[in-house]
Specification:
Mean pLDDT: 78
Number of strands: 13
Helix content: 55-70%
Structural class: mainly alpha
Keywords: Antiport, Cell membrane, Glycoprotein, Membrane, Mitochondrion, Mitochondrion outer membrane, Phosphoprotein, Transmembrane, Transmembrane helix, Transport
GO molecular function, one term: antiporter activity
Shape: globular
Catalytic activity: choline(out) + n H(+)(in) = choline(in) + n H(+)(out); ethanolamine(out) + n H(+)(in) = ethanolamine(in) + n H(+)(out)
Strand content: 5-15%
Oligomer: single chain
Pfam family, one: Choline_transpo
InterPro entries: Choline_transptr-like
Distance between the termini: 34 Å
Number of helices: 24
Strand order of the largest sheet: 12-11-13
Largest sheet: 3 strands, antiparallel
Length: 671
């Protein structure tokens, strides 16, 4: 099926439709070997029409589009060009159909433009005081006696989006090396933290808890100081609702309500974390013992810290396959032409043929109508069921991505299981545990990994279908249908989380015993059910502590990047790049830091989950006697023995609290 999809997509698709812009005749601008090779840019006769709803329906502006060599760099009207010098006429003819200076074949007006994604869009600018200009002019005539304000051009959705995209692109070009430096710092901080956790697990956990509280506390203090400093400033009391949607997000930082909202959110997070730590104070000691054991396991399997790079590389290949196939599928349509007109016409927006349009009834009854390229589509069976091919491509993407993730989980859990079940550590541990585990997974467990990934992928595709239906039914007024759709989306979200949790533990059992997927999932489920209290007390509390570690790294790097890019560090103020939106590199560094920290801590999380299942299995198989000794370390056994009575009391007294905590930890994992 994969080969059939690839053959259909790559034989019918044409990526040139994405690379090159298309004029009103369906020709590619700038394509080598064609008459338009030296005309790589697309020019719109009337850019203001791009705000029409038709753009959202058919992804095409209802105006004539022409391939040109360069974008206009000055303001000029058609009337002025006709009455002007030969230089003006020759200049204007570049932007007319067939180079003929005539009404209907030329735009009514030219305005200074700049190329963006090979399309000529107005060169908007802002003077001091917020005055909007196109080129250097605030107003200009349209050639028909009316004047156009530059603000009206700016309010155009397409033009405004172009401005924002250009500014973001400029910010990346100015700050990309600083962004890379921030990500490198995040990697070094994560690695140092993991190394310190290896030798000072108990101390580092408590240091991590205190620092998380201090970092969030500092965030609350900073928000309060910003909130107080804006008191009495002009315009600072405007509400976010009154301000509306602004493309310049720094505007929101000039009003007090924004900082008040940040302060409230951080205060709520701080209170939740402190309350959880108070209620979990006894269980944190147990979790620290498990983290210490995980630190020793990671120390003996140091190569496990670099295995996420393998997973990342394989996921990059999967994403590349999906993206390329999706592009070929989306560009496998045929050119569709429709009737565009300015006056009323019964043939408006109907399909037409540009070769025969001049002799058709539409041309006779609607003299001002034109047969222009509208979009790519088709009426064949292939084109009708193209959406199914796209969904199938999405399904293959989920399946392959889940398989790569499952392979990484089995590989890591197999390496850590070999550490736990080695009676004499480190003598009984294999020389290369990661490579040995990866070899076993590829040789014996490929089918099990594919089957587990298939189950999860089916649920994920159903969720995508539900989201697709939700978008299609947004305009429906049936409240019952909306309610049922929302319930189904919620149920399948919960089902996906449950399957991910079961699959993860099933893969651990596969790595330990080498059984197939179904028996391993059965054994893992009932093993967890027999130790449900330990799951909440040990496993999930440990996951929560590791989640705090991610927050700490993201918080530290995020705070320093905020002060640097906003120019608030006096010592290095001159080194900070001049940016349009300083939040662009800050968000990039924060998101990248979280992904890097998640990559390092995911190894620890997998180690903790593996050791926890091994520990539960060890308790059931062995009793600590000389004939059946425990494989767990004496330190872990001592702490777990002390908490045995505590676990029994929790079963009777705190079942509801544990259920609530379990839901909270699943939510944290989802974030």
């Amino acid at each position: 099926m994969i080969l059939i999809l690839l053959r259909a997509a790559w034989s019918q698709g044409d990526p040139r439709k994405v690379i090159y812009p298309t004029d009103s005749r369906g020709q590619f601008c700038g394509q080598a070997g064609t008459p338009l090779e030296k005309k790589p840019l697309l020019f719109y006769f009337n850019i203001l029409k791009c705000a029409s709803p038709l753009v959202l329906l058919e992804f095409q502006c209802p105006t004539t589009q022409l391939c040109v060599e360069k974008c206009p760099d000055r303001h000029l009207t058609l009337m002025k060009a006709k009455l002007g010098s030969n230089e003006d006429r020759e200049y204007y003819q570049q932007y007319c159909k067939d180079g003929i200076l005539k009404d209907g074949l030329c735009p009514a007006i030219l305005m200074p433009s700049k190329a963006f994604t090979r399309r000529c869009l107005p060169a908007l600018g802002t003077l001091k005081g917020g005055v909007v200009v196109v080129g250097n002019e605030t107003t200009f005539t349209d050639g028909k006696g009316s004047s156009i304000n530059a603000t009206d051009v700016k309010s155009n959705v397409v033009v405004e989006a172009r401005q924002v995209a250009m500014r973001i692109f400029e910010d990346y070009t100015q700050s990309w090396h600083w962004i890379l430096l921030g990500l490198v710092i995040a990697m070094l901080v994560s690695f140092i933290f993991i190394v310190l956790l290896r030798f000072l697990a108990g101390i580092m956990v408590w240091v991590m808890i205190v620092l998380v509280i201090l970092v969030i506390g500092y965030g609350i203090f900073h928000c309060y100081m910003e909130f107080a400093s804006l008191k009495g400033e002009p315009g600072s009391d405007v509400t976010i609702r009154d301000l509306g949607l602004q493309t310049d997000f720094s505007v929101y930082l000039q009003i007090r309500q924004t900082w008040l909202a940040f302060m409230i959110i951080l205060a709520i997070v701080e209170v939740i974390i402190i309350l959880l730590l108070i209620f979990l104070r006894k269980r944190i000691m147990i979790a620290i013992a498990l983290i210490k054991e995980a630190s020793r396991a990671v120390g003996h399997v140091m190569s496990s810290l670099f295995y996420p790079l393998v997973t990342f590389a394989l996921l990059a290949v999967v994403i590349a396959y999906w993206a390329i196939t999706a592009v070929f599928l989306s560009t496998s349509n045929e050119q569709v032409y429709k009737v565009f007109n300015n006056s009323e016409c019964e043939y408006s927006r109907e399909t037409c043929d540009p070769q025969t349009f001049n002799t058709s009834n539409a041309s006779a009854q609607c003299p001002d109508a034109e047969c222009l390229f509208a979009f790519y589509g088709g009426e064949t069976y292939y084109h009708k069921y193209l959406i199914l091919f796209q969904f199938y491509n999405v399904f293959l993407f989920f399946w392959c991505a889940n398989f790569v993730t499952a392979l990484g989980q089995v590989t890591l859990s197999g390496a850590f299981a070999s550490y736990y079940w080695a009676f004499k550590k480190p003598d009984d541990i294999p020389s290369y545990p990661i490579f040995s585990s990866l070899g076993r997974a590829l040789r014996y467990h490929t089918g099990s990994l594919a089957f587990g990934s298939l189950i999860l992928s089916i649920v994920q595709v159903i969720r995508v279908l539900l989201e697709y239906l939700d978008q299609k039914l947004k305009g429906a007024q049936n409240k019952f249908a909306k309610f049922m759709l929302s319930c189904m989306k919620c149920c399948f979200w919960c089902l996906e989380k449950c399957i991910k949790f079961l699959n993860r533990n099933a893969y651990i059992m596969i790595a330990i015993y080498g059984k197939s997927f179904c028996p391993s999932a059965h054994d893992a489920f009932f093993l967890l059910m027999r130790n449900i209290i330990r799951v909440a007390v040990l496993d999930k509390v440990t996951d929560f502590l590791l989640f705090l570690g991610k927050l700490l790294i993201v918080g530290i790097v995020g705070i320093f990047s905020f002060f640097f890019f906003s120019g608030r560090i006096r010592a290095i103020e001159d080194a900070a790049p001049s940016l349009n939106y300083y939040w662009v590199p800050i968000l990039t560094v924060v998101v990248g830091s979280y992904l890097i920290a998640h990559g390092f801590f995911s190894v620890y999380a997998m180690c903790v989950d593996t050791l926890f299942l091994c520990f539960c299995e060890d308790l059931e198989r062995n009793d600590g006697s000389p004939e059946r000794p425990y494989y767990m370390s004496p330190e872990l056994h001592e702490i777990l023995s002390k908490t045995k009575m505590h676990l029994c009391s929790l079963t009777k007294k705190c079942s509801l609290v544990l259920v609530v905590e379990q839901c909270w930890f699943l939510y944290c994992e989802d974030l």
